[in-house]
């Protein structure tokens, strides 16, 4: 609601009117001296100084149950179905750290995360402390811990990197799994080579079998030709013997 800036009709308070009447009566009742002319009563009414923000004259109980307050109180809160947020992923902080080290200071969004190349080399460096200066811990998982570090040597000298440190107790299992994967890959390659060799041999044998089958068919045709010639010769001999008997 806006404030009204118009001039309101001023009503003189009864207390002010009574004081003015008392002053006039006292001036008339004095007997010494000639009667003075009646004091001029200023007809300009006095304006009341009212504050812009006045409390309501109504008792609080009368407007607490009003329609506006009841509608506000009856409206259900919008935040009734609140779920706890998931903790932030440590990988995002690591990627953000790597992004800042590569010159990108923009915040990483959910949809377009920068695709940075990671050094996935696995091994145990004896001069680890001479190459990296470890900082605070930024994450941990089942096998080890991830630290923010600064590279002292190599191509990434002076840049911030993320380093994974695996304890010896868990590094043994990691090494066993790594060696097992290497052996398994070698066995797979060996089996693949054997399969290729056997397939080549089978193809050669199949070609030789087809050649032998063609030779067999030719031999069968030759045998059929010889058999027909033998039958013709046998028929001629029977005819000659019959003529000799006659």
Description of the molecule:
This protein is mostly helical and 246 residues long. Among the domains are: 90-107 and 118-166, no CATH class; 167-246. The chain is built from 6 helices and 3 strands. The chain has a 3-stranded antiparallel β-sheet with strand order 1-2-3. Strand 2 (145-151) and strand 3 (160-165) form a beta hairpin. The longest helix is centred in the C-terminal third of the chain and has 78 residues, at 168-245.
Q: What does the radius of gyration come to?
A: 57 Å
List unreliable stretches of 5+ residues. 26-31
What string, H for helix and E for strand, traces the elements in order?
Answer: HHHHHEEEH
Q: Helicity range of the residues?
A: 40-55%
Strands side by side in the biggest sheet:
1-2-3
Question: Any descriptors?
Answer:
mainly alpha, single chain, 246 residues, three-stranded antiparallel beta sheet
Concise overview:
By secondary structure, this protein is mainly α.
SSE blueprint:
Elements: H1 14-29, H2 60-63, H3 67-74, H4 90-101, H5 128-131, E1 132-140, E2 145-151, E3 160-165, H6 168-245
Antiparallel strand pairs: 1-2, 2-3
């Amino acid at each position: 609601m806006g404030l009204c800036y118009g001039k309101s009709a001023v009503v003189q308070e009864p207390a002010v009117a009574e004081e003015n009447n008392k002053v006039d009566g006292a001036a008339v009742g004095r007997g010494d001296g000639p009667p003075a002319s009646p004091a001029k009563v200023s007809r300009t009414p006095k304006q009341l100084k009212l504050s812009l923000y006045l409390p309501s004259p109504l008792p609080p109980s009368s407007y607490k149950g009003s329609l506006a307050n009841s509608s506000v109180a009856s409206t259900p809160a919008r935040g009734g179905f609140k779920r706890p947020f998931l903790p932030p992923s440590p990988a995002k902080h690591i990627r953000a750290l790597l992004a800042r080290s590569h010159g990108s200071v923009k915040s990483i969004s959910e949809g377009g995360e920068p695709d940075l190349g990671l050094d996935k080399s696995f091994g145990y460096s004896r001069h680890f402390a001479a190459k990296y200066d470890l900082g605070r811990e930024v994450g941990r998982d089942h096998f080890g811990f991830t630290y923010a570090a600064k590279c002292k040597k190599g191509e990434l000298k002076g840049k911030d990197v993320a380093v994974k440190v695996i304890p010896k107790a868990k590094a043994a299992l990691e090494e066993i799994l790594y060696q097992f994967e290497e052996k398994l890959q070698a066995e797979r390659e060996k089996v693949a080579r054997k399969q290729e060799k056997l397939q080549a041999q089978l193809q050669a044998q199949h070609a030789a079998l087809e050649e032998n089958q063609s030779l067999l068919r030719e031999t069968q045709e030759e045998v059929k030709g010889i058999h027909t010639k033998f039958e013709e010769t046998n028929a001629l001999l029977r005819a000659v013997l019959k003529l000799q008997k006659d």
